[in-house]
Amino acid sequence: MIRKELTGIFACFAMLFFAAYAFAAPVPGTGQTKCYNNTVEITCPLSGQPFYGQDASYNINPMSYTKLDGSGNVLSSSVTFWVMVRDNVTGLIWEMKTSKDGKTNYANPHDADNDYTWYDSNPATNSGNSGTQGDGNNTEEFLKALNDVDYGGYSDWRMPTVKELAFIVNYSIPAPDPTIDTVYFTNTSAFWYWSSSTFAYDTSDALFVGFNDGGASFYSKSGRSYVRAVRGGQSGVLGNYTDNSDGTVTDTSTGLMWQQTNFPQTTTWEQALSNCEGLNLGGHTDWRLPTIKELRSLVDYSQYNPAINVTYFPDTATSVYWSSTTNHVSRGDAWSVYFYHGWDNDNSKTGHSYVRAVRGGQPVPSEDWVLSVNPANQSVAKTAGTTTFSVSNTGTGTMPWTAAVTPISDWLSIISGSSGTNAGTVNCNFTANAGASSRTATIRVTATGATSSPIDVTVTQAGSGSTQPVLSVSPVSRDV
After folding, report:
1. Mean pLDDT throughout 93-118?
2. Strand arrangement of the beta sheet that strand 93-95 belongs to
3. The model's pTM
């Protein structure tokens, strides 16, 4: 494949017209745990010392994954065979790849060696350019193969947005290894993977993320790249902003608070770190330079010049903004975003770029969280009806949780309360059971980012040959 680049732009990000739908989810950490100065690795500095405030100075929303079997059940991290991977921070579920032997096998859509042209026949999502159907080995046919067989019990597999795909990049892993946690994402090639994102500047191109360096760029839809499917609500698509009328803007879709007006002068990377650490704005003093994933969450890929919501960030320069994340391949550079198009850059740390500070996110809990669901198991009548479960997620501060019927059931569904923060109620609907035997379904409640969740709640419905069930109401709890 021939990579198409713009002069002067390295590992660049580009644009897509996204649907406005999004759900609230934290921005995952980058995986970077080592510290650097302008040239080499250093001992991580303390607050007040030079280069404090870089990515590894904080531990916010660390990446966390869970292996799942073919029915969506949780497996031990030590198992050697699994079918899907759940991102415990975003809640997204990812397809696993198999058979990485250097040979394509399109009869197996999970074959790690298969590459595809970019094709989307839906005019509502292809930005006016469907791409290249080719010989049938295209991204639309790939997704159809997964959904036709209800892979993992689901038929809503899709291409990831460019932000979602970049969320699983691990920026601590240098080349030539793939920049991803291979304990969970085995058989990943250190190469390019398609996103669902069309490049609005030239709709004959689409965006990819390179798992050789963690950057993103664009490539002709007629070219061939690898694909990894995802399911779940789209995360990090468009910000849901609130102007706090004090010089700050809160993005309720990520929980991050932003400096509304960037620092007026461009600075070096070291000075950018210092300026953010010393900022006192909106009554807050815990400002910091954003990670590359956090900075990218601001990008609006439906527009350019600048690629950001100018209603909330009107002074944004069509230029480069620093992130706190060092380029793990070239340690004298740091990742940045070019807000003309929204592309990624990697700039020399001694160069000058713009700065916008951030605060918030979901830090590592300072105490154990306790997630509980009551009742732990529910028996319901054979006739149609509704049932409820109470969720409690207690600790200092806030921690979100989600609930889902796993795998999807044809008789039990959640009608409200599929997500919440701390306490809430999950309301379910069930249809009548015309069969003679009882049937069961599972509701999985997950505390986002918690390593020892989820809790599985079993709902058992009587059959026509069963007597009226007795309700079980014993609670279940876990430290998370």
Report:
1. 95
2. 65-68, 84-87, 93-95, 230-231
3. 0.72
